[in-house]
Amino acid sequence: MASKSYLEQLNKRRTFAIISHPDAGKTTITEKVLLFGKALQKAGTVKGKKSGQHAKSDWMEMEKERGISVTTSVMQFPYHDHLVNLLDTPGHEDFSEDTYRTLTAVDSCLMVIDSAKGVEARTIKLMEVTRLRDTPIITFMNKLDRDTRDPVELLDEVEEVLKIKCAPITWPIGMGKEFKGVYHLLRDETILYQTGQGHTMQDSRIIKGLDNPELDEAIGSYAQELREVLELVQGASHEFDQQEFLRGELSPVFFGTALGNFGVDHMLDGLVEWAPRPLNRAAAQREVSVEEEKFSGFVFKIQANMDPKHRDRIAFCRIVSGTFEKGMKLFQSRIGKDVRISDALTFMAGDREALDTAYAGDIIGLHNHGSIQIGDTFSEGEMLKFTGIPNFAPELFKRIRLRDPLKQKQLLKGLIQLAEEGAVQVFRPMQNNDLIVGAVGVLQFDVVVARLKAEYKVEAIYEPVNVSTARWIYCDDAKKLDEFKRKAEANLALDGGDNLTYIAPTMVNLSLAQERHPDIKFVQTREH
Ligand code: G4P
């Protein structure tokens, strides 16, 4: 039985991520959420391609230059009586593996939709990913300060395209310049919108009751319109049901404007009230209950050089069960050894704080000196391996070459460390000294070159290379493996972790190799 104080810590915690199509407003919402969490006194202007200021979650150089979120950062903040962990995810599709892995580390998601655009491509894809674990989804319809689509139509689209029932919790009154606020269906109150309060906490005016004449005074003819629309909406839409929400079948929907800082707090109220506390998770051996007080957790992300001053590599570990205490000895099951963790970190988006205690649901940062890999499980001595952390096969390949050939060692070190993060793979052919970079998206090639320059002081360029796919090689029979190595040497390479891979110029070449060597396993991803 878990102790009362441990259960209190559990029940307080909510760990979530935001999923959205680029430009829907994820960064802006993150800022406002932190503002409400009082983590930031005054939320910065969004990313500031124009203003020169940057959102706190966008702290990598690349992000500043391109105005996109490249990396995942983790933010913890208090909200009312709760403790919220928000895991930021890259919006750009070239970084989707990073996002997919982050989604394995959360218990619920906030889906942000641009109300002028409706459901967009990337949202559809990300929703598919959340379906793998039936993650509960809260929806925020953003940008009500602009001319948007009809709210009923928006809900219909979400239901139809994303196959999830919608239960409106708030309902918008007007839109664009005429946006007046929202009516909260559960609280039976109207919250009025005031413009020009985007950077501060709003002290909104609240009118209790739908039939209150004050409402007619405040918003004129919109009041009567609202009453009529609501009758329709309440008849036609779904009522909120927490069990359905927890099963991922129904989403509570909020309306507002992140830029105007309106409605984000309603969403947060819903999140802490309804979203699940840290959930149990499946390991290959058994299901681990969050109420077990023994520590367990898994690494879902590795990030090199988060802080240029520290020049280190951080492994992000989601705690599945138990309590982490500073100085604790943890068992790393992949290598079967105990490691002492003296200096774990918590994150305030780029600001790092040394950590004494953390609980299930929290993310801790472990210093990685090359021994931690994505997917690794840590425990208090039990052999456990958490499952379901995806790895993706690279689909694009380029040869990378130095401008200054004397820095080969530095280049290799940089590439291997960046490959640890899982976004790119590096391949070293057995028969020559080439270095080949494999990536899932084009943008990652640029990121690698920019980070090599900024973090490892090497200038590299790409050249085309005749590789179109890669497979990781496994074989239990040492003799057969040796024979294969001799025969196929021209196509063999080692990846960043010294794992044997087959790099094929064409799919036909790969099929032929597979036919010729039926005892060899050609695996599309490096198994975590
Ligand atoms: P993302 O992280 O999902 O990609 O979106 P982000 O928050 O960066 O928002 C994308 C654009 O939408 C930004 O404008 C942002 O100011 C704007 N935006 C976000 N929320 C709202 C809202 O509620 N109302 C309105 N009207 N706009 C909103 P931008 O001009 O592309 O950014 P910037 O160039 O000013 O940095």
TrEMBL record:
<dbReference type="InterPro" id="IPR053905">
    <property type="entry name" value="EF-G-like_DII"/>
</dbReference>
<dbReference type="InterPro" id="IPR035647">
    <property type="entry name" value="EFG_III/V"/>
</dbReference>
<dbReference type="InterPro" id="IPR032090">
    <property type="entry name" value="RF3_C"/>
</dbReference>
<dbReference type="InterPro" id="IPR031157">
    <property type="entry name" value="G_TR_CS"/>
</dbReference>
<dbReference type="InterPro" id="IPR000795">
    <property type="entry name" value="T_Tr_GTP-bd_dom"/>
</dbReference>
<keyword id="KW-0648">Protein biosynthesis</keyword>
<feature type="binding site">
    <location>
        <begin position="88"/>
        <end position="92"/>
    </location>
    <ligand>
        <name>GTP</name>
    </ligand>
</feature>
<dbReference type="InterPro" id="IPR041732">
    <property type="entry name" value="RF3_GTP-bd"/>
</dbReference>
<dbReference type="InterPro" id="IPR004548">
    <property type="entry name" value="PrfC"/>
</dbReference>
<dbReference type="Pfam" id="PF22042">
    <property type="entry name" value="EF-G_D2"/>
</dbReference>
<dbReference type="Pfam" id="PF16658">
    <property type="entry name" value="RF3_C"/>
</dbReference>
<dbReference type="InterPro" id="IPR009000">
    <property type="entry name" value="Transl_B-barrel_sf"/>
</dbReference>
<dbReference type="InterPro" id="IPR027417">
    <property type="entry name" value="P-loop_NTPase"/>
</dbReference>
<comment type="function">
    <text>Increases the formation of ribosomal termination complexes and stimulates activities of RF-1 and RF-2. It binds guanine nucleotides and has strong preference for UGA stop codons. It may interact directly with the ribosome. The stimulation of RF-1 and RF-2 is significantly reduced by GTP and GDP, but not by GMP.</text>
</comment>
<feature type="domain" description="Tr-type G">
    <location>
        <begin position="11"/>
        <end position="279"/>
    </location>
</feature>
<keyword id="KW-0342">GTP-binding</keyword>
<comment type="similarity">
    <text>Belongs to the TRAFAC class translation factor GTPase superfamily. Classic translation factor GTPase family. PrfC subfamily.</text>
</comment>
<dbReference type="InterPro" id="IPR005225">
    <property type="entry name" value="Small_GTP-bd"/>
</dbReference>
<protein>
    <recommendedName>
        <fullName>Peptide chain release factor 3</fullName>
    </recommendedName>
</protein>
<keyword id="KW-0547">Nucleotide-binding</keyword>
<feature type="binding site">
    <location>
        <begin position="142"/>
        <end position="145"/>
    </location>
    <ligand>
        <name>GTP</name>
    </ligand>
</feature>
<dbReference type="Pfam" id="PF00009">
    <property type="entry name" value="GTP_EFTU"/>
</dbReference>
<dbReference type="InterPro" id="IPR038467">
    <property type="entry name" value="RF3_dom_3_sf"/>
</dbReference>
<keyword id="KW-0963">Cytoplasm</keyword>
<feature type="binding site">
    <location>
        <begin position="20"/>
        <end position="27"/>
    </location>
    <ligand>
        <name>GTP</name>
    </ligand>
</feature>
